[in-house]
């Protein structure tokens, strides 16, 4: 169960940019959340007000642009979750996406199961003729991660400080098992839960789906 659900995104600037989009994400458990907050607090201490932050850690597996039919997407994600087993998420280091992205991240280890989940979701979405964002990296190039901060607007000196902080905290590791995926959609300036899907890994029995809508 996802009790007292906390939204991944609460910053109004990010919500405005995400309006109309949908995402399939994984939510790590409490000990990873604690690590995430501890690391994020160090970046908050050195970054200016122009920087935005995710409110909760999450691993994005697929995003869908404005105009994606939510009913069809829910069906796709339910079918996908039937065949995906609980997933091992292992943080293997503190890293960063360099300019122009400027995003410090907790990098997640690529596993065979995680890559298969990524590929199968993309395949089902394509078969359902759902729209996709342009220039999505291939499975070979996709970096699984937890974004810590979105630093697109910072100057070179500030980004240099971020890079130094990343280097100083190299070697962070932690692991967890995630047994649910969430479908989130951004409509009306808020994040809404489009569905919570148990990762069953069986492909033959019905999925347990819990949905909330705004």
**Number of E-type strands:** 9
Q: What is the subunit arrangement here?
A: single chain
User: What's the overall geometry?
Assistant: globular
Going by helix content, strand content and strand pairing, the class is: alpha+beta
Distance between the termini: 19 Å
Strand order of the largest sheet: 2-1-7-8-9
Kindly report the CATH topology: Cyclic Phosphodiesterase, Chain: A
Low-confidence stretches: 203-214
Beta-strand residue fraction: 25-35%
CATH architecture: Alpha-Beta Complex
Question: Secondary structure elements and their pairing?
Answer:
Elements lengths: L11 H7 L3 E5 L3 H15 L14 E6 L5 H14 L3 E11 L5 E6 L3 H16 L17 E3 L8 H13 L5 E5 L1 E8 L2 E9 L10 E2 L4
Antiparallel strand pairs: 1-2, 1-7, 3-4, 3-6, 4-5, 7-8, 8-9
Helix pairs in contact: 3-4
Report on the structure:
This protein has 214 residues and is α+β, with helices and mostly antiparallel strands. It has one domain: Cyclic phosphodiesterase (Cyclic Phosphodiesterase, Chain: A), CATH 3.90.1140.10. Helix content is 30%, strand content 26%. The protein has helices spanning 12-18, 30-44, 70-83, 112-127, 156-168; strands spanning 22-26, 59-64, 87-97, 103-108, 145-147, 174-178, 180-187, 190-198, 209-210. The strands form 2 sheets. It has a 5-stranded antiparallel β-sheet with strand order 2-1-7-8-9. Strand 3 (87-97) and strand 4 form a beta hairpin. It starts with 11 loop residues before the first helix and ends with a strand. The relative contact order is 0.25.
């Amino acid at each position: 169960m996802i009790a007292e659900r906390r939204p991944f995104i609460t910053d109004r600037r990010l919500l405005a940019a995400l309006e109309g989009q949908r995402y399939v994400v994984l939510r790590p458990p409490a000990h990873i959340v604690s690590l995430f907050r501890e690391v994020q607090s160090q970046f908050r201490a050195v970054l200016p007000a122009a920087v935005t932050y995710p409110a909760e850690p999450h691993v994005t597996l697929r995003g869908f642009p404005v105009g994606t039919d939510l009913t069809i997407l829910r069906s796709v994600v339910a079918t996908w979750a039937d065949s995906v087993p609980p997933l091992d998420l292992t943080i293997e280091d503190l890293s960063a996406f360099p300019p122009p992205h400027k995003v410090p991240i907790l990098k997640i280890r690529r596993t065979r199961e995680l890559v298969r989940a990524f590929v199968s979701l993309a395949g089902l979405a394509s078969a359902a003729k759902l729209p996709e964002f342009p220039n999505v990296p291939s499975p070979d190039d996709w970096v699984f991660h937890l974004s810590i901060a979105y630093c697109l607007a910072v100057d070179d000196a500030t980004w240099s400080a971020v890079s130094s902080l990343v280097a100083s905290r190299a070697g962070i590791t932690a692991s967890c098992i995630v047994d649910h995926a969430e479908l989130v959609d951004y409509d009306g300036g808020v994040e809404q839960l489009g569905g919570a899907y148990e990762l069953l890994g069986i492909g033959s029995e019905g999925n347990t789906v819990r949905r909330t809508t705004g």
